[in-house]
Amino acid sequence: MLENYCQSNGLTNVKCYNMGVWDQAQELFFAAGDDFVSGTLLNSDAGKKVIKIEVDAIDHILDGKKIDFISMDIEGSEIRALEGARKSIQKWNPILAISAYHKLEHLWEIPLLIKEINPEYDIFYAHHRWNMDDTVCYGKM
């Protein structure tokens, strides 16, 4: 769908990758279904209805290519994915928009990790809903 959208809107400078981001190349398993656990990261596919997703680090996927903007809302996997983007963030200083509401500790862990990766980032938060859902940690130079 993303590739079709980009092509039909003339976004020739956008490259689409059919995979998830993480801190390493791996296959992850997520619960499949219509209930509240759908989308939950699982340890394996043993005996469950699952969706398998190929993931890799942004640093591996892009292999040094320039990146201007990173936006993540990946259901609590933001820390692992940021670790996998460490070299790209250090090299290119992209604007960051990282969801920080999936786990309470992400409210402080995400900005601390961004500052560890590059201490020059200015960090700020924005709430995009009336509650804690859609709380985003922004980083920019």
Annotate the secondary structure layout.
Elements: H1 2-8, E1 20-22, E2 26-31, E3 41-42, E4 50-57, H2 58-62, E5 69-72, H3 78-83, H4 86-92, E6 95-99, H5 106-117, E7 122-127, E8 135-140
Parallel strand pairs: 1-4, 5-6
Antiparallel strand pairs: 2-3, 2-4, 6-8, 7-8
Strands of the biggest beta sheet: in what spatial order?
A: 1-4-2-3
**Into how many domains do the coordinates divide?**
1
- Order of secondary-structure elements: HEEEEHEHHEHEE
Q: Low-confidence stretches at least 5 residues in length (pLDDT < 50)? A: none
Q: Which CATH-level-2 architecture?
A: 3-Layer(aba) Sandwich
Q: How confident overall, as mean pLDDT?
A: 90
Give the termini distance in whole angstroms: 32 Å
Class of secondary structure makeup: alpha/beta
| Assembly type | single chain
Work out the radius of gyration: 16 Å
Shape: globular
Report the sheet with the most strands, covering strand number, pairing sense and barrel closure.
4 strands, mixed
* Count of DSSP-assigned helices: 5
Q: Determine and state the CATH class.
A: Alpha Beta
| Count of β-strands | 8
CATH topology: Rossmann fold
Q: Could you state the CATH homologous superfamily? A: Vaccinia Virus protein VP39
